[in-house]
Amino acid sequence: MRDNLPEIPGGPYLPALLLVGTEAAGLDRTAEAYRAIKRQIIDLTLPPGSRFTESSLAQQWNISKTPVREALARLRRDGLVTALPRAGYVVSPITIVDTDDLCALRTVLSSEAAALAARRGIDASVLERLGQLSTVPGALAAGDADQDEAMRAAMEFEALIANASGNNRLAKVVVEVLDELERVLRMAALIAPEAASPPGELQSIYEPLRARDAGGARRAVRNRCERVHRDVVRVLTRSASVSGAHIEIPRPRDDNVPS
């Protein structure tokens, strides 16, 4: 599906998902290690609660411990890993409380970014790209190829709007939130693989953006973010008996999905 879409216009901030498979040209060893480890955490290769050491990661990526140590320091600041005294590191859990906060923050930031972008006017090439992305059928998160493409399209759609806001700091934070949200969405998809976004949701955002309707764009993005917020928390609650519980990746088979 992605092969039918043109190269990504706009920037400079793009979610980590869109960088998968691209060259890391110009990155130093620390930046390469950070990008690689962060990707493993986001795509659940390193699932919540998993433990590892600097040595194990250095061996995996065939690099020295120093860039791995520096990358892990950045990931600690990001809140994605926690250092264990004399025992390495553990990937931070996904909790209902933190997910609730993350989704609420995304609603505030992305809806305001959409209003700014609409008011300012979006470059024609970016607007064309948004129109194409808005037609990709939506799914909650990755599973088969079409579901994975839906997530990529939705992430790119939101990031391009943030970049078009004209506020680089806002765009940077929106993309950071989207990276954290991807991990949550992938967890939710494992619990409820049948979940999908309502048809036409991205198109309802695209239209006011094209019309330079700031209020309409803000409302459309807010409605989408709040819908995702409700759906994700509802799905994750299936796997947590209390709001602060560590959500475990379910075993194969959909025993966690009520009939």
UniProtKB/TrEMBL annotation:
One Pfam short name? FCD
**HTH gntR-type domain span:** 27-94
Regions that span the bilayer: none
GO MF annotation: an example: DNA binding
Alphabetized UniProt keyword annotations: DNA-binding, Transcription, Transcription regulation
Which superkingdom? Answer: Bacteria
Q: What is this protein called?
A: Uncharacterized HTH-type transcriptional regulator ydfH
Originating species: Nocardia africana
Q: What gene name is listed for this protein? A: ydfH_4
